Amino acid sequence: MDMMEKLEILTESAKYDVACTSSGSQRSGQAGSLGNAVSFGICHSFAADGRCISLLKVLMTNGCIYDCAYCINRKSNPVRRAAFTPQEIADITMQFYRRNYIEGLFLSSGIMRSPDYTTEQLIAALELLRNEYQFRGYIHVKAIPGADDALLSRLGMLADRMSVNIELPSQESLRKLAPDKSKQSILQPMGLITNKITENSTELVKYKHAPHFAPAGQSTQMIIGATPDTDYQILNLTEGLYKKYKLKRIFYSAYTPVVEDSLLPSLDTKPPLLREHRLYQADWLLRFYGFEAKELLDEAAPNFNPLLDPKCSWAINHREQFPVEVNRAPYEMLLRVPGIGVRSAQRIIKARRAGTLDFHALKKLGVVLKRAQFFITCKGRPLEGLKVGEHTLLRSLMSGQELAKFQQPEIEQLSFFDDSYLAALPEAGRAASFSYGG
Ligand code: SF4
Fold first, then answer.
1. Which residues line ligand 1 (CB under 6 A)?
2. Residue 146 carries which DSSP code?
3. How many Å lie between the centroid of ligand 1 and the Cα of residue 231?
4. FRET pair for 241, CA 20 to 30 Å: which of 341, 380, 390, 414?
5. Which DSSP string do the residues of 212-278 spell out, in sequence order?
6. For a pocket test of ligand 1, which of 13, 58, 66 has the largest count of ligand atoms closer than 8 A to its C-beta?
7. Nearest Cα residue to 415 out of 428, 401, 404
8. What is the largest CA-CA distance in the chain?
């Protein structure tokens, strides 16, 4: 099989892995070496189906001794197989880099013979790149669950970022769909990488030239929609992983049916892209907005509202906390207002030291008043002429795409309010739904 054929097979097989962000590593070029890495990330491109296929994203082999039901590369799936040698991986990376096609490598692999053997092959490829070709560009490598700690430690010294895919949100789902893996076999290398990164940061304080261990941290990927796990379960797991393993990112991958299996959604099921999007939004709220998973969902309402983003849903369900007075509200509360992001909240805090803010000033600071107007007051007063009927509010809080879906006649219009609340509302559009102070 020639290189081109192998490349076609092994890049195609790699596209289902979405855990491939490239930011977080800073390394300048040096005389006698090639390439650099920049902390703000390297270029990404997106395939027609919206998946990130940035860098040279390739598998060492798509042959695998495991049989994960959701995976196109599972051993029982009759697909064409191919494998690169470590030398071939190093050579094509260098050739692509020199031609300016890529700025780094994302290397993963099916499991050949054993996790240890596979990890040795990955190490061999990265050693060639780093030591023989002096490649200083970005490398993201997959850690293979079940590999020896010493091998994973060596791998981490050669890569910028490592990831161990958690794949499915619960032990039960793993047991059914990926019987060769267990939660423990995935969490163990994750824990090792976390500890190594922590140890390394201490060493770097003491010794400036100590070698770096995965300086861009670690990430993971979860498949969404292959199993009945709820958003609530997924978000709780996400929160736990961020806290315990200090992950840089968790990627959610809407399940695309690629193999027929009675345990999986049928082949004509569309990937749940909106659900994936909602999880990314909620993930953002956990990482940057001070929310906890239990505030956004619970067992009684375990899935996100398809029509509203999680922050708007939270605000609607916590009307007793609004409106907030932007001239007095603490930073943490400003962050909870729909239409106020991290930057605009920071700007508000800074600007109000110099004077009292009005709605005009908020707009200039980047606040999206279309959303925020229903949840804030300035100098104790709501926006002049604000009318809040249920539909006005709904339309203002939905994005263009959501609104288009909402206007399709076959989609049932959801009510934000329980019946008693609606009964208490004056005629639509006449009065605000919130009781404004001042
Ligand atoms: S171990 Fe990885 S490559 Fe192998 S079948 Fe499972 S998901 Fe696919």
1. 64, 66, 68, 71, 73-74, 110-111, 178
2. T
3. 24
4. 341
5. PSSTT-EEEEEEESSSS--HHHHHHHHHHHHHHH--SEEEEEE----S--TTS--TTPPP-HHHHHH
6. 66
7. 428
8. 76
What residue has token string 């953002």? 284
In this model, does residue 426 exceed pLDDT 80? no
pLDDT tens digit sequence for 244-258: 998 988 999 898 887
d(CA 205, CA 224): 39
3-state SS, one letter per residue, for 81-101: CCECCHHHHHHHHHHHHHCCC
Question: Which residue's CA is the nearest one to ligand 1's atom 2?
Answer: 110
Report pTM: 0.80
Q: Does 431 have pLDDT greater than 60?
A: no
Higher pLDDT, 45 or 328: 328
Name residues whose C-beta falls within 8 Å of residue 190's C-beta, 6 or more positions apart in sequence.
164, 166, 218, 220, 241, 245, 247
Closest C-alpha among 110, 145, 109 to residue 126: 109
The whole-angstrom separation of Cα 388 and Cα 434 is 8
pLDDT of residue 142: 93
What average pLDDT does this structure show over 208-232? 88
Instruction: Read off the pLDDT of residues 154-173 as tens digits, 9 standing for 90 and up.
Output: 999 999 889 998 888 888 88
First-to-final CA distance of the chain:
76
Q: What is the pLDDT of residue 401?
A: 62
Give me 183's structure tokens. Answer: 């939660």
4's tokens: 């081109």
Amino acid (one-letter) located at 91: D
From 72, 73, 112, the mutation candidate for ligand 1 (largest count of ligand atoms within 8 A of CB) is 73
Beta carbons within 10 angstroms of residue 86's beta carbon: 18
All residues at 6 or more sequence positions from 340 whose CB lies less than 8 Å from its CB, including other chains? 334, 348, 367, 368, 372, 376
Question: In the 3-class helix/strand/coil scheme, how is 8-55 assigned residue by residue?
Answer: HHHHHHHCCCCCCCCCCCCECCCCCCECCECCCCCCCCECCCCCECCC
* Helix count and strand count (H, E) for the chain: 17, 8
pLDDT digits (tens, 9 = 90+) for 340-359: 999 999 999 999 999 999 99
Q: Is the pLDDT of residue 381 over 50?
A: yes
